[in-house]
Hints:
The protein is an alpha+beta fold and about 150 residues long. It has a single domain (about 25-145), classed as CATH 2.40.50. Helix content is about 20%, strand content about 30%. The protein has helices spanning about 1-15, 35-45, 85-90, 125-130, and strands at about 50-60, 65-70, 75-80, 100-105, 105-110, 115, 135-140, 140-145. It is globular, with a radius of gyration of 22 Å. The termini are far apart.
Amino acid sequence: MIRSLLFTILFLGSIPGFAQQKEEVYEGDIRESDLRRRELVEKVKKGEIPAAIKLRFSRKESDFLVFYDIEGRSIYYRYREDRFDTDAEKRVADLIAGEAYEVTGPFLGMYYASMMHSSDHPKYKEMLNNADAIPAFLFKSARPLRIEQILL
């Protein structure tokens, strides 16, 4: 019994269609190679701000959408001007917490202690080196990375 099973496995392995292929490791919607917050801050320091970033959506917080990278570090996207901006609310109504998106928008500055520090702010350079300061962008769009999934 064992001998015939071993023979079958060896025989099928020798057939070209059954040859074992190298398995690809599933990394999920956001991969290890995708940009992390610390790498993003380094790019901002050099003036190399990416057009889009792959992140997961967390929640809405005040006028910001909170996304996070593969390490769980937050990145903010300002999506509305004030709490009465109903058009902005409609634009982000379909975002699902925990889902991965490719998010776009121009860089605004570093957000720290409920204050935005744009590039012309006196403490901007200091905020770039502050690990607790959060990069903030103006929200333009979020494209879902898992578009073939059927949601029930």
